[in-house]
Design a protein that fits this description.
The complex is a heterodimer. By secondary structure, chain A is mostly helical. Chain A has a domain of about 40 residues: Histone, subunit A. Chain A has 4 helices and 3 strands; from the N terminus they run αααβαββ. Chain A has a two-stranded antiparallel sheet with strand order 2-3. The radius of gyration of chain A is 22 Å and the shape is flat. Chain B is α+β, with helices and mostly antiparallel strands. Chain B folds into 3 domains: about 280 residues, no CATH class; about 130 residues, no CATH class; about 60 residues, Arc Repressor Mutant, subunit A, CATH 1.10.10.410. Chain B is built from 17 helices and 17 strands. In chain B, strand 14 and strand 15 form a beta hairpin. In chain B, helix 14 crosses helix 17. Chain B is elongated, with a radius of gyration of 30 Å. The chains are: A mainly alpha, B alpha+beta. Chains A and B meet through helix 1, strand 1, helix 4 and strand 3 of A and strand 2, helix 1, strand 10 and strand 17 of B. Strand 1 of chain A pairs parallel with strand 2 of chain B.
């Protein structure tokens, strides 16, 4: 598989990354290099193997730990708001989103 | 093919529903924040919910248990539809109310696969298949137009970039079970029937409070149309933002009309998300799904696969309440009521509880069923009450009235009126009586009451004859008309007798004696 400039633009848009036209060509060759590695991986015969949902499974079989349904987090609004660039009336402010 | 309401001949409508049910846990799905509704903004948003660096999600056991319960409920208790191992995945998209830049959901291995829900439209049963049900977290809320836009007066009103949106992350991380149906519905009516049946199930098993206004039960409908007989499905549009059953029906019907008109005019339906606007009763394009569809799912490395042991499933199964379908079948078998009555009674657990108490106090299952679906339902609808509301008269008193009606101590009319007085709290006497009845000796207290009020049904033939004689004497014109063959005149005379008896005369006896006397 090989990425074309149009694929690249689309991926960049989905990831909300601004890529200038000048950056496109080098990025394309870098990403295609990675695709080369993936092609190598995909050449390995995995017949009969279950897909690995988590790398830890290779080391040790561990299921997800579950937590009891208890309220352990108390109101931290003031501390959290202190990190925000803008806030008002207990709301975080962000550039206007329309939809 | 039978014609379906609102669908032009020659067209077939295909509908599938995606329903987000908010799970009735105390804390969020991946953090220990409360999910209580209506809290001050951002007071229930922890570092995990805010996606601060270094935090990790830890799965709430109760949320998984809710999914197991649902899987059992829609599969008649069969545990094969509950995945022994399921995986959480990241669904990537950008929106300010989603701080991580992805929503933790499930993709390839959901907790529940398969299942079905039975619906009934105009007496015809239909099975709607379920594709899957998976666990996920909710996003936060964006509050538009709430924050003052200080730039408006400076002439920048046309520049939306100067305005700002407020973000409340209390809802971020609230546990949801997304239930996906197969595209098995063929009309808006069927879609609503399915949504109602599903609502009945999730509230019955107690995994969701079902509150649609607060967004605990939200439906998205995938709607497409095709020429009847076509194999291939038409392009679908997804309708979002529907927060009541009534709007669901209207939104789908609008969408059906829109798509058919579009195609008939030579146009093409595009795959997109449309928002329903209840005020204008129309759907509007929200965004083309072309891009948004690519969520680039992948297994979330922050979470290990979830393992659900058969022992756990069995444990949950043992603690499950009797399911509505089973309860309905039991009531039909035990009480000899009809399946239609039983379905209506099993609309909620509270409804069944009320009915079962009523049955005990009244001593008559059939009468209790009729009252539940007649007088009592009418009262609930009129007053917009739920059956377990404290405003609803208690089963003991209503049951006593029904028992009295069954024993022919009072007429049906009096029974209804007394129930009404009980509901309206108009008669001080009956309110006082309620107190006595609720304490003890129900029947005796009730009989003393109806006797003292002159409400007791008169079945004494002598007394009724006397009343009839008086009425005949006072209404010679009606008597003549009846004798001349005008059947309707009998009704007038009957009405007079009932009036004279203050509605307490046994109606069957009145008719019989009246006819006999007039025939002589």
């Amino acid at each position: 598989m090989e990425l074309h400039p149009d694929d690249l633009k689309r991926i960049a848009r989905l990831a909300r990354i601004a890529v200038s036209d000048a950056e496109l060509a080098p990025l394309q060759s870098q990403l295609n290099g990675i695709f080369g590695l993936i092609d190598e991986l995909q050449a390995v015969d995995t017949k009969g193997l279950e897909p690995l949902a988590h790398p830890l499974d290779v080391v040790q079989h561990l299921p997800q730990r579950l937590r009891d349904d208890k309220i352990t987090e108390l109101d931290q609004r003031e501390a959290n708001m202190a990190n925000a660039p803008a806030s008002e009336n207990g709301l975080f402010l962000v550039p206007k989103v329309l939809e | 093919m039978s014609a379906k309401k609102g669908i032009p001949t020659g067209w077939e409508v295909v509908i599938g529903l995606e329903t987000h049910t908010q799970l009735s846990t105390a804390s969020k799905i991946f953090s220990g924040s409360s999910i209580a509704f209506g809290a001050e903004p951002n007071t229930q948003a922890s570092a995990i919910d805010l996606a601060l660096p270094g935090t990790l999600p830890v799965l709430n056991k109760a949320a998984v248990e809710c999914a197991i319960k649902f899987g059992l409920a829609v599969n008649g208790g069969d545990d094969r539809h509950i995945a022994p191992r399921s995986v959480f995945a990241r669904k990537n998209y950008f929106y300010p109310d989603l701080p991580k830049g992805y929503q933790i959901s499930q993709f390839e291995l959901p907790v529940v696969t398969g299942g079905s829900v039975t619906i009934n439209v105009d007496g015809v049963e239909k099975v709607i298949r379920l594709t899957r049900a998976h666990l996920e977290e909710d996003a936060g809320k964006s509050v538009h137009g709430y924050v003052a836009e200080g730039y408006v007066e400076d002439g920048y009103a046309e520049e939306p970039a100067h305005g700002q949106s407020g973000i409340d992350l209390n809802r971020a991380g609230v546990p949801l079970l997304e239930i996906v149906s197969e595209p098995d519905m063929r009309s808006a009516e069927e879609a609503v029937a399915y949504a109602k049946a599903l609502h009945g199930i999730v509230t019955w098993i107690g995994i969701c409070d079902g509150n649609m206004q607060e967004g605990s039960f939200r439906c998205d409908a995938n709607v497409s149309v095709r020429k009847f007989g076509d194999e291939k499905l038409g392009t679908r549009a997804e309708i979002k933002n529907v927060n009541s059953f009534r709007f669901l029906e209207k939104a789908i019907n609008y969408e059906i009309r829109r798509q058919i008109e579009l195609i008939e005019d030579g146009g093409k339906v595009v795959q997109e998300t449309r928002l329903y606007d209840a005020e204008r009763d129309e759907t509007r394009s929200m965004r083309s799904k072309e891009d948004a569809m690519d969520y680039r799912y992948f297994p979330d490395p922050d979470l290990l696969p979830v393992e659900i042991s058969r022992d756990w499933v069995e444990e949950v199964c043992a603690a499950m309440p009797e399911l509505p379908e089973t309860a309905a079948a039991r009531l039909v078998a035990e009480d000899g009521i009809t399946i239609v009555e039983a379905r209506l009674i099993t609309q909620s657990q509270a409804f069944v509880r009320y009915y079962e108490n009523l049955r005990e106090y009244s001593g008559s299952a059939k009468r209790s069923a009729r009252w539940m679906l007649g007088e009592i339902s009418a009262f609930l609808n009129r007053e917009q009450l739920e059956i377990d509301d404290p405003e609803v008269p208690s089963e003991s008193v209503v049951g006593t009235i029904i028992a009295s009606e069954a024993a022919q101590e009072i007429s049906k009319t009096v029974a209804r009126e007394q129930f009404q007085a009980l509901c309206d709290k108009t008669e001080a006497d009956i309110q006082a009586l309620t107190k006595i009845i609720e304490k003890h000796e129900l029947r005796q207290a009730w009989i003393r009451y109806i006797e003292s009020k002159g409400l007791k049904q008169v079945s004494n033939a002598g007394a009724i004859e006397k009343m009839i004689d008086d009425v005949i004497a006072a209404n010679p014109k009606s008597v003549e008309e009846y004798k001349a063959g005008k059947e309707k005149a009998l009704n007038a005379l009957f009405g007079q007798v009932m009036k004279a008896s203050n509605k307490t005369a046994n109606p069957a006896q009145v008719t019989e004696i009246l006819k006999r006397k007039l025939a002589s």
